[in-house]
Structure formats: structure tokens, C-alpha cells
Amino acid sequence: MCRAETVAARGYGQRVLEEMRIRGLGVIDDAVLELAPGLTVVTGETGAGKTMVVQGLTLLFGGRADAGRVRPGAAKAVVEGRLAIDPDHPAAARATDAGGELDEGTLLLSRSVAADGRSRAHVGGRSVPVGVLAELGEELLAVHGQSDQQRLLQPIRQRAALDRFAGTDVLDKRERFAGLWARWRDVRATLQQLEAEAAQRAREADLLRLGLAEVEATAPLSGEGHHLAIEIERLANADDLRTAAATAQQALTGDETGEATDALQLLTAARRTLEGATGHDPGLATLAARAKEAALLTADLAQELASYAAGIDADPRRLEVAQDRLAALTALVRRHATEDVDGVLAWAAGANDRLLELDGTGDTVLALAAEDAKLEKELGTLAAALTKDREQAATRFGTAVTAELVELAMPHAVVTAVVSQRPSLDGLQVGDSRVAAGADGVDDVELLLIPHPGAPARPLHKGASGGELSRVMLAVEVVFAGSDGVPVMVFDEVDAGVGGKAAVEVGKRLARLAKSHQVIVVTHLPQVAAFADQHLHVVKADDGSITRSGIVSLDDASRVAELSRMLAGLDSGLARGHAEELLAAAAEAKGR
Prior knowledge:
Layout lengths: L2 H8 L6 E9 L2 E7 L4 E6 L5 H11 L15 E9 L5 H8 L8 E9 L4 E5 L2 E3 L1 H11 E4 L10 H12 L1 H29 L1 H21 L5 H13 L1 H16 L9 H15 L6 H28 L4 H20 L5 H67 L6 E7 L2 E8 L2 E3 L8 E7 L7 E2 H4 L2 H15 L7 E5 L7 H14 L4 E5 L3 H4 L4 E9 L4 E7 L2 H13 L4 H19 L1
Parallel strand pairs: 3-15, 3-16, 8-14, 14-15
Antiparallel strand pairs: 1-2, 1-4, 4-5, 5-6, 6-7, 9-12, 10-11, 12-13, 16-17
Helix pairs in contact: 3-4, 5-13, 6-13, 7-13, 8-12, 9-11, 10-11, 13-15, 15-16, 18-19
């Protein structure tokens, strides 16, 4: 479902702006507008302050603050609004992101402008930058006036609205294009990075291979350095070790002459003496057994010392080999900045993995290049189809808007939607050309106006006067029928320069637009005001020194009186009859 359809289905445009209060703005001292769904018209005498309603809306949604608009004698101008927003609407998400709170689908906005020019904004009870109000306005409000910036004058908005006008097929193609384009952009960026780093990867791989070759040539074993250090120490002190073992062995068992008393003889004598005395005290048998055990242990120790002494290797050649091997291992450890040989082996394992990864990058580059070419071809085909559909929609749109302008007293004006592309050397290949691409395709869309035969086609805001531009934008909005997805539309003096039948046609189109939007119109024509679902009247009071205005909502009888004033400048029986006829004709037209 496209966004315009979503707006209609969820009713965003039925009643978004529920209430607005204006204080200290221009001639308005303090006024509250209770706004209804559908079409609301604002009327009043010249100078009463009708335009302040539009100014208030513009301020509330982030428009430029002008201290000159602050009512004389007032410290500041304040505009407050209460909005009904579906929690799923993008504006609700933006308000929440800014720290504001929604209360059961209601959002409160506030904007103040001090007499010294300082401006403050609040969203959902939280102070925010004024830019947040402007961002909410992008989602919620379109102001069409003689001096206000127009949403649909922005090319990106024109393209989006044209796509929605074109229908679901174009929207589906655009969505597919956006997905493919995002993937193509990522693939191309990765590919460019890999290609740019190719030389660096080659140098890294060469260094890894050199290091691995050195490790492979040395062929270290886990713990080898520790074992070599022990062996070298033993070989270097072989004579001392042999002498120590022999001396200890002689102390235990005696020398070959048998002249000296040794430990084993003494232990044997002690055992015999104890065993001989056990008859006098049985407890002495335990000590005799221990003496026997000590003699046996001494004999075993002496035998092991003899074996150790006999096994001592004093080979100078082996010592030299061991020292050379340890030196090679030490150099290897130092070059790889590790603590020991085990650290070198760990580095080698990681280096092998990294080398496999680097060697596999070539295959990755080939695969990415193939995917890049495939995606670009698909995107080029889809972009061409999207351009063709947009051009067809642009033709239908231009014809429809031009037909609307005939009924709005601009019979010679022609509106066209021009679909074009911008060349780009590093852009997307579409047909025989490379053009700039984005998530929405390769097309720029611009609405152009030919105000009269012989005039050049120019952008809307350059090809029409203020009053004409309002009517052109009304025709555009009616044809788009809410395709830009903005739920609240404001038209200021859209009927400037028209009257009679053309004014009735303006009213009809505003009423038609109000079926899917909340439409607020400032008008001076009774033919337009007759189509209102709600009629607000700006009342001016003058006490001789201060002029102030208030706003009242008119009932049926009051509407007749106001239309009479607008028709004839006074409330007369003839004017009332004409006013009643206008209301009846408008009601009939709206019913149809």
C-alpha cells in the first residue's frame, strides 16, 4: 500500500489539527480555533486578521519568526496547537524521538516569538529546536499561499508525488530499485576498497610467507628452548656433576678400599643392635624396622648416584650443537617479538590462517566484480522501465492539471511534468549513457508552467503570480489527490483574481480535496466560502485606540449573514436570498 493510500485508509487527513490558539500575533489578541474535519474556511473584513491564521499555522510548524508580527504592547506572540495523530504516523515517531509525549494519540505543539525576536518551541511538553517543528510540518502540513514556501515546489516532493500518482506498479518498481541500488552501492564500495588495498595485501602476504618459511626452516618444537637450556647447563658442568655424584655415593657405601666408615655400614650396625635388644622391649622392634628401611633406602640412593655419575655426558660436540640450536631459537623468538618458542608457533598458526584469507581475496574480488556487473545490468533495465512509466504518468498528470486550470480561470495555462536525468561519469549505466542514480531511480522530476501561449516553460514559482500560483497548486493537489501524503492543507487567497463561475469551481475543488484531507482556506469570495464544512469568522473590534480581532465559528444562520456581507457589503434581504442560493447550490454540488 502506498503512503497516500495509507493516509486515506487510516484517516490521517480527516481531523489532524483539532485546535489552535493564537495570542499576541498581529491584530489577534487572543483567539481559539476549534477546527473540524473536511473544509474549513476563514473569512472576515479586510484588515481583520484572516492572514494571521495562516501566519499562526506557519509559525506553529517551524516557519520563520518575525518579531514585527508580535502585537504592539505584547511581550510575545504564542501559537499553540493540539493535533490528533495516529501513533504509527511518521510525525509521531519524530515527536517521540525529540523527547515529546503523545497522550492517547494527542500531540501538543507550541511556538513563541518574543518582541526581541527570540523564539522557542515545544513538542509534547518538551522544549525542542525550532527545526523539529519544521520536520513535523514536512509530514503534516502543506501551505499554499502567495508568499509561503510550497512543499510541492521541491523537486524531490514532485517526484515522490508523481510516483504515487502513477500507481502501485511504479511504487513497486521504485521499491525494488531501492533494494537493488543499496546492494549495488555496498558491493561497489567493497570492491573499490579491495582493489585499492590490493598492493598492501600483496606486501602483507609476502612478509607472512617469509616469516613462515623461516619458522618452517627452523622447525621449532613446543617447549624446546626450555629443554635445551637445561641440557646445556648439564653439559657445561658435567665434571662437577660427576664428582658430586661419586662423592655422595662413596659417603653412602664407602670407597673401594673399605677403610672408611660409610653410612650404610653404620645403619646396618644400628639395625643389628636394635634387633638384638627387642627381646627386652617389644616397642624397640618398630625402631629396628625403621633402621632396616633406612639402610635399604641408602643402598638404593647409592646405586642411583652411581648410575647418574656413569651417565653424565661430557661430549663437547653435543654442547656446541645444543648451544647453536638455542641461539637459533632465541633469534626466532626475538624476531617475532614473542616470549618463547610456543609464542612463535602460535604466530605461525595465525599467519597461515591470514595467508589463506589473503590468497582468497582474489576470488572474492572476482565474485564481487561479477555481482557488480549483474546488479548494474538489472538496475539499468529497471531504471529504464521506471523512467518510461514516469514519463507516461507525467503526460497524464500534465493533461489533468491543465484541464483543471481551464475551470480555474486560467484557460491558456499549461502545466507539464518533465522527467530528466543528470549525466554522471561514475553513475549507473542506463542504455548508452551513465546517469546519476539514487534510491529512487535516475530521474529528476520538475513541474513547469506555461502561463499563456508563446511564453517559455518555467518552474511553477517562476511562471505564475501569487494568485495564479495558488490556483495552480490547487489544481496540482486536486490531481494528485493527496499523493504527497500530507494530511493538512492550507490555502491563502487561492481565489485571488477570480470570481463568478471560476470561484465556484475553486470551491468545488477545495471541497473535493477535503474528502481526503483537512483543508483550511482563507478566502474573500462567498462562492468559495459556501462549500465549507466549517466556517470561521475573524471579527475585528476597535475601541478607538486598540484594534483587536477574535475568531468565532458560525452556525447556519450566521453563515447566511456572513455570505450576505461578502456578497453585497451589507446584510440585506436580497443578499440573504443570494447567500442561501449559494449554500444550497454548494450543498448539492458536494452531494454529487
